[in-house]
Amino acid sequence: MSVIILGDRAVGKSSMILGLCEPSAQEKYVVVDPDDCSRLKEDLLGLDGKIVATENPINLHSLTIYLRLSRPREIMVDLIDTRGEFWGDIKATENPADKFPSAYQDFMQRISQARYIILVLHPYQELVRDRYLKSESNPLDRVNRENDLYPREVWIGNLKRNLETLKNNCSSAQHFFICLHKADLFCNYKEESERWQYNPSGCNNFGAYLDRIYLTYFSVAKDVIKEFNANRRGPSKLSFFITTKKDRKLLEIPWLTLGTFPGVGEEISR
Amino acid sequence: MIPKSKSISLEMCIMGARGSGKTTYLASLLAPGLKEQDGNTIKEGGVKIENLVDIINNRIRQKQTVIPTDLSEEYEYRFDIAIKNTKRFRQAGKIKLIAKDLAGERFDRIVDAFINPGNSKSPKEKAKLEQDVNNFLNQCFTIKCWMFMLTEWQTDRDEEFMGIFKFLCDRIDEKSNSQPIQSLRVAVVMSKCERGEIWGGRLDPEADLFKIRLPKTYNLLKDRLKNKVNFFACSAYGILGKNDPRPNLFYTEDDGNHAEYRALLRDYNNWNPYGVIEPIYWLATGEHLHNEFI
Predict the structure, then answer these.
(1) What tens digit of pLDDT does each residue of A40-74 get?
(2) Do A235 and B253 touch (CB under 8 A)?
(3) What is the interface pTM, i.e. ipTM, of the complex?
(4) pTM surpassing 0.90?
(5) Chain B residues 80-139 within an 8 A CB cutoff of chain A
(6) A217, B178, B237, B252: most buried by Cβ count inside 10 Å?
(7) Closest-CA residue in chain B for A219?
């Protein structure tokens, strides 16, 4: 079974996984295999500890992730880290199919076979609050609103294009998990994380979380999402999340939701 | 007459279009309300039962939709169903059920292969699909109890359903000499009957749902299968209470999907499925179970 993580350049695909690798004082419900963690860090981080932009057109990292659900599961994740423009960054000038023909073909084949796909998105400019931009203490992480983020209309167009690509090329995919990353820029992520954190005693209302995220952050793209879902038989294949590498609980939710799909991964003994 | 102490074994397969509620129906057999009703007991078993328990705990209970059953995940679930109030009716008290949950895609594949083939496939693909569907049907023909789940009662679907059942009746006729087919029983179940438009039809589903809503399908089945077929109405989610006929479900935000696929169980602790045991009982015994709820 493969899970693929996609998204524009510098959107935070690698940081999403590295965030899960970080040591944490909190109970971990999504655990990346420790050996895989250190290997990933060596591959992704430069000497200064900063994430190095992915150079090769495709970098494949195989990981094992344990989901500590009521019945624990172990999932094999092929983290296919692509150069952002590969996935069709609007700012890219060259068509990836021309620039890296064989890698592109390989990539298309992989996404066509993936069972689950995680799509990572930046927030749009209008969503970001000034106070969150300014209060950031980590200068390495500073996001420039105008240079790094799309205005709302462009963002919606980009989502539309992304969803069309998924619809047309991912015939084996059972579900798409859309993560609005860098949640620390647009909401009080600590409050959200307290509210929605996984409760191992089993009283989770993922449905309410998914509805809220859809309504609050994605309703600007309602038409695009409705168009994607229209005329389908069966439940929607899209779920929406907010994530930030600063908060483990929010980062875990998409993976724990993935774990609620029947037949995901292998059951492991307690 | 069936001795009430006798336990009857029933092996059935459950078939129907995508999203008709087959997996949810089987999950509803484990609903808390059903387990506690009048001392009836339902015990679950089988190697894959954990899958069904997961669907309840991880999806239904956490207010998420039930995911379509994949062709590679058509599992067999076992249930021991003990029915308490059978004494008055001299009915069987215990059913050992083995239920095979089939993917809705099976239904589509029958249509694609034989009923509405279209021109998009190469002859090779077509032959492969036909072969595959035939293999599947041959497996079904080793099972003598079938449950068909329908959810669309709109009259415009009548023609389509009739086409599929006509095809299946033809296959049944071809196999009429085989042992399982001679004792075949087919339960046709209208699911999701908590919906206001059809809730009233549940009391006599044959007359008030099938005969009126789907007359062509109904007449065909009655004519071809005679007493081998019977009609039922069920609601896996049920209603909120005896005096509260509101469906025990709510709808998630409109995301462009059909409302049917956005309906989720509202109150887990108040989960009382309606009419889910009756078709099983008839398949096992050929007799009708008295429904205490009416």
Answers:
(1) 888 887 777 777 766 777 778 888 999 998 888 88
(2) no
(3) 0.81
(4) no
(5) 104
(6) B237
(7) B255
